[in-house]
Specification:
The protein is mostly helical and 253 residues long. It is built from 9 helices and no strands. Helix content is 60%, strand content 0%. Helix 3 (49-70) packs across helix 4. The radius of gyration is 19 Å and the shape is globular. The relative contact order is 0.14.
């Protein structure tokens, strides 16, 4: 908070201050990311899909928003799409790491979905539940696909080079979900990765996606509905810092 208020302490916080100032990133966004860290530290429960989406925004969606602002995006509609891509990435991360997370006591799958499938959140890592857990994970990947689809319509609003890079990342990361689906309940026997050949296709396809969107997309991304997708309140608006001591924290070294 001190760095955002113009009193950075050390090179890391000086960098934060410079970037947020230069690119007019609202104070709320770095703080929202830290809130995501708090959710992990406090082991916040994920009872519903909304809980999982809220967490995904705080640890990844808001990163997409800040990256888009660094790339020059300012339109609310474009920032919403950037948030969608970050959320999609995080849902893919969750799906890829379900068993590894469960083995260290973490579960990001919605608890109500697991119970519908007959699995207690504490029993996700048990081999006998693998098929049921896969069915829940596949359901989460379906949700991720909705966010990947939405994000596609914001990428063309970025500068060309940045747009191609982000489109390529979108294609490659989405393909991790395809690998998980193809493996079925054996999805977590080894880490799901995308081959070099598939990555190349993702990069090439990203370039084509950007060109197609620039030619065909309506000038207003809001014309392409985001109905039903999770959205942070007043996304992109500047807000005041939360109350608290703005004195730089003591060094941890």
């Amino acid at each position: 908070r001190a760095a955002l208020a113009g009193r950075p302490d050390g090179p890391v916080f000086e960098a934060l201050h410079r970037v947020t100032t230069r690119h007019e990133i609202p104070d709320r966004h770095p703080l929202e990311l830290i809130e995501g860290f708090r959710m992990d530290v406090d082991r916040v429960p994920f009872s519903t899909l909304n809980d999982t989406l809220t967490y995904s925004y705080h640890v990844a969606g808001v990163v997409g928003v800040m990256m888009a602002m660094v790339m020059g995006a300012r339109e609310q509609s474009t920032l919403n799409r950037a948030s969608d891509l970050g959320i999609a990435f995080q849902l893919t991360n969750i799906s890829r790491d379900v068993i590894g997370d469960a083995e260290v006591g973490r579960c990001y799958l919605p608890a109500d979905w697991l119970r519908e499938a007959g699995v207690a959140p504490s029993d996700v890592a048990k081999p006998e539940n693998r098929a049921a857990v896969f069915a829940v994970t596949e359901r989460l990947l379906d949700v991720a696909d909705d966010y990947y689809a939405s994000a596609r319509f914001g990428i063309a609003k970025l500068p060309l080079r940045a747009a191609w890079a982000i489109a390529a990342a979108r294609n490659v990361y989405r393909d991790i979900g395809s690998v998980i689906r193809a493996r079925g309940p054996a999805a977590w026997d080894s880490r799901a990765v995308v081959s070099k050949q598939r990555k190349f296709r993702g990069v090439a396809g990203g370039g084509l996606d950007v060109l197609a969107q620039r030619i065909m997309q309506p000038s207003n991304p809001d014309a392409l509905s985001r109905e039903g997708l999770w959205t942070a309140p007043a996304l992109g608006d500047a807000t005041e810092l939360p109350a608290g001591d703005l004195t730089p924290a003591p060094s941890l070294t």
